[in-house]
Design a protein that fits this description.
The chain is mainly alpha-helical. The chain has helices at 2-36, 45-55, 61-74, 80-85, 92-104, 110-119, 125-136.
Length: 139
């Protein structure tokens, strides 16, 4: 009986050690993840617009496209001349996003209407569709 209880104590101690060795890395990772999670301060709109305008000149097509779409969704008129410039981008996805974003901005002036009308003859059908939607205001 004494031998059995000493064996059970050793076994119990060994299991606890293995359990600790198994769970400690998980607990550390969990605490680091949860401990570092916090809401980041949201930048003011002007800071976001300035950053997105900078990203319009990125060499990655998807970055330029996403920046153009984001500027349209924000709706800040400061981005209008930069979006107009992107209507001449070499990539159709960027031209499409710029056209759609210009349609989301309030009020189309004559220069914007002219450039969007020129896009109705673009080689890419999605760019033509985005320009037509921007001109009619139907998205």
């Amino acid at each position: 009986m004494i031998l059995f209880s000493q064996f059970s104590i050793l076994l119990s101690h060994a299991c606890r050690t293995q359990w600790f060795l198994f769970t400690s890395p998980l607990l550390i990772c969990f605490s680091l993840t949860v401990g570092c999670y916090q809401d980041s301060p949201s930048p003011d709109q002007q800071t976001a617009v300035d950053l997105l305008i900078t990203l319009l000149d990125d060499r990655d097509t998807f970055v330029r496209r996403n920046a153009a779409e984001a500027l349209g969704k924000i709706g800040n008129l400061k981005s209008k001349p930069f979006l107009l410039a992107k209507l001449d981008d070499s990539e159709p996805a960027v031209r499409e996003a710029a056209a759609r974003s210009l349609g989301w901005l309030s009020g189309l002036d004559s220069e914007t209407r002219f450039k969007l009308t020129m896009l109705l003859q673009d080689a890419d059908m999605s760019v033509q569709r985005a320009a037509a939607q921007a001109l009619t205001g139907r998205f």
